C-alpha cells in the first residue's frame, strides 16, 4: 500500500523473508499483542497463517464472538475456534488455591493448543505476541530477578514439544508501538486500546472455586461496568478496570422480599507500568449507576462494593 507507514511495510517484508512459503500457527487470545501479530501475519503471508483461538470459558462477555467477527469474518483470517469450556471447568472443579488455578488453566491451554497444532502437520512456525518488555522480563527471570508473586500465564514449553520455530515479530516493540502498528494494520481502535486481560481470565477474578454459574454472573456485571465506563469517558482514563466475583452472600431487600445473594467488587486502577497502581477516583455518580444497573440487571448479585486499595500492598487482580 502506497500510504502505509514505512515500518508496516518493513515489518511485512521481514516476516516474508523469514517465513518464505512455510506455514505458521498462532494462538490468538483476543488481547492486543496476539491480535496485532494476527493482523500483521495475515497481511504478510495470508493463508499460510492459521490461528487457534481457545475459549476456556473464562473470557469476557461475547469475547469469542468478537474475536471471530473481527478476524475470521472481517479480515478473512483462518481461525480455528475451540470451545474448551467443559474441559477447563472440569479440571478446575474443587480447586480454590489461586496458584493451583493458574497452573491448571495454563496447562490445559497448552494441552488444547497442542492437540490443535498436531492437526496442522505442515506448520513449521509458532508465532507469539512477545513484545520488548516481555523479553526484558524473562531475561530477568533467568537471573532470578523477576517477581514470582504470581506465576504468569506461561506457554514457554510449546515450541520445543511441537518442534516449531519461534516467530516473534513484535519482539523489538514497546506497547505503544504495538498499538500504532495495530491501527496502521486497520484493527479497530477499541481492540487496540483495550485494557490488558490476564491469561487465566475470569479464573483469577472469581475468588476460590471457579463455577460456570459464577463466571456467567461475573461476565454480565463486568460488561455493565465497562459499558458505563466507556459511556462516561472514563475507560481511557483508567489502565485496567473489571469486576470481581466474591463467593459470599449478603442480605438485601428487593420489593417486599428479602434477598440473600452474591457480592461483586469493582476494581479500576491507574498505572504506568502495572508494578505499582493507584485506585481510580471514579465519580460517585458513575459508581452509583454501575451499582444500580448490576443489582437490577444481574439476578444473583445484590451488593456491589468498590476496591480502594493501592498496589502495593494489594495487587491489581484479587488472586
Ligand atoms: P497484579 O495482580 O500482579 O497484576 O498486580 C499486574 C498485571 O498483570 C496481570 N496479570 C496477569 N497476566 N497472567 C497474565 O497474563 C497472569 O497470571 C496474571 N496475573 C496478573 C494483571 O491483569 C495486571 O495487568
Q: How are the SSEs ordered, and which strands pair?
A:
Blueprint: H1 6-19, E1 23-27, H2 32-45, E2 49-55, H3 63-75, E3 78-83, H4 85-92, H5 98-117, E4 123-127, H6 132-142, H7 158-162, E5 165-167, H8 175-184, H9 189-192, H10 212-231, E6 240-254, E7 257-270, E8 278-279, H11 284-297, E9 301-306
Parallel strand pairs: 1-2, 1-4, 2-3, 4-5, 7-9
Antiparallel strand pairs: 6-7, 7-8
Helix pairs in contact: 1-2, 2-8, 4-5, 10-11
The protein binds xanthosine-5'-monophosphate (XMP).
Task: Write up what this structure looks like.
- The protein is an alpha/beta fold.
- The chain has eleven helices and nine strands.
- Strand 2, helix 3 (63-75) and strand 3 form a beta-alpha-beta unit.
- The termini are far apart.
- Xanthosine-5'-monophosphate (XMP) binds next to loops.
- This is GMP synthase [glutamine-hydrolyzing].
Feature tags:
20% strand; GMP synthase [glutamine-hydrolyzing]; 11 helices; 2 domains; 319 residues; EC 6.3.5.2; alpha/beta; Rossmann fold; globular; 9 strands; GMP Synthetase, Chain A, domain 3; 4-stranded mixed sheet
Amino acid at each position: 500500500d502506497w500510504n502505509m507507514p514505512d515500518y508496516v511495510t518493513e515489518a511485512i517484508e521481514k516476516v516474508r523473508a523469514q517465513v518464505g512459503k512455510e506455514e505458521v500457527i498462532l494462538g490468538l487470545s483476543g488481547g492486543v499483542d496476539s491480535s496485532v501479530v494476527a493482523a500483521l501475519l495475515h497481511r504478510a503471508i495470508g493463508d499460510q497463517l492459521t490461528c487457534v483461538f481457545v475459549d476456556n470459558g473464562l473470557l469476557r462477555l461475547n469475547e469469542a464472538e468478537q474475536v471471530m467477527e473481527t478476524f475470521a469474518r472481517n479480515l478473512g483470517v483462518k481461525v480455528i475456534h475451540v470451545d474448551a469450556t467443559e474441559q477447563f471447568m472440569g479440571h478446575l472443579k474443587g480447586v480454590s488455591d489461586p496458584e493451583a488455578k493458574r497452573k491448571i488453566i495454563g496447562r490445559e491451554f497448552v494441552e488444547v493448543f497442542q492437540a490443535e497444532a498436531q492437526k496442522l502437520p505442515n506448520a513449521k512456525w509458532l508465532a507469539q505476541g512477545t513484545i520488548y518488555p516481555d523479553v526484558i522480563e524473562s531475561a530477568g527471570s533467568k537471573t532470578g530477578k523477576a517477581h514470582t508473586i504470581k506465576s504468569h500465564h506461561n506457554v514457554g514449553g510449546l515450541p520445543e514439544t511441537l518442534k516449531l520455530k519461534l516467530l516473534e515479530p513484535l519482539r523489538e516493540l514497546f506497547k505503544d508501538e504495538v498499538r500504532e502498528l495495530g491501527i496502521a494494520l486497520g484493527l479497530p481502535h477499541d481492540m487496540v486500546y483495550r485494557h490488558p486481560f490476564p491469561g487465566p481470565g475470569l479464573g483469577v477474578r472469581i475468588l476460590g472455586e471457579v463455577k460456570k454459574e459464577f463466571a456467567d454472573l461475573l461476565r454480565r456485571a463486568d460488561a455493565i461496568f465497562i459499558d458505563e465506563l466507556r459511556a462516561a469517558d472514563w475507560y481511557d482514563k483508567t489502565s485496567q478496570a473489571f469486576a470481581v466475583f466474591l463467593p459470599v452472600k449478603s442480605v438485601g431487600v428487593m420489593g417486599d422480599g428479602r434477598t440473600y445473594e452474591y457480592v461483586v467488587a469493582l476494581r479500576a486502577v491507574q498505572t504506568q507500568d502495572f508494578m505499582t497502581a493507584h485506585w481510580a477516583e471514579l465519580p460517585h455518580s458513575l459508581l452509583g449507576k454501575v451499582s444500580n444497573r448490576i443489582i437490577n440487571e444481574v439476578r444473583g448479585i445484590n451488593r456491589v462494593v468498590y476496591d480502594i486499595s493501592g498496589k502495593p500492598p494489594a495487587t491489581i487482580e484479587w488472586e
